[in-house]
Amino acid sequence: MAAGRIAWQKNDHRIRIVKFVMTKFMVIENYREGCFDKIYDRFHKNGRMLPEGLLFIESWLEKDGIRCFQLMETENPDLFYKWIKNWEDLVDFEIIELGEKPASDNLKK
Questions:
Q1: How many other C-beta atoms lie within 10 A of the C-beta of residue 54?
Q2: 10 falls within a domain
Q3: What's the CA angle centered on 29, arms 69 and 84, to 5 degrees?
Q4: Is pTM beyond 0.90 here?
Q5: How many domains does the chain contain in total?
Q6: What is the pLDDT of residues 17-62, one digit of tens each?
Q7: CA angle 67–68–74, rounded 5-degree value
Q8: Is 21 left (phi over 0), alpha (psi -120 to 50) or beta?
Q9: Are 80 and 97 in contact (CB under 8 A)?
Q10: What CATH number should be reported for the domain holding residue 73?
Q11: Full residue range of the structural domain in which residue 63 is found
């Protein structure tokens, strides 16, 4: 079943809704000095090397090319430790759990 979808389960003639909630994270990758080419060589050879359950959504590279911002999603934040082991020789990481943005009627003008 895809993450974030709603599943219907039939149990004893009753229907129960089960919702799988995924948490979003902003990952900031700070490239170590002189590692830019090594990072992209590894990426092109091996891909992102994400463990199952850690989902990549989108990424953006800072204009000067020394930081990458990645939006990811998971039910299990411990999966980041497994993923980071593949890159920790080239990149320093900051991982920020994101909350819901406030409703527009709650924003002060």
A1: 21
A2: no
A3: 120
A4: no
A5: 1
A6: 555 678 999 999 999 999 999 999 999 999 999 999 999 999 999 9
A7: 140
A8: beta
A9: no
A10: 3.30.70.100
A11: 22-99
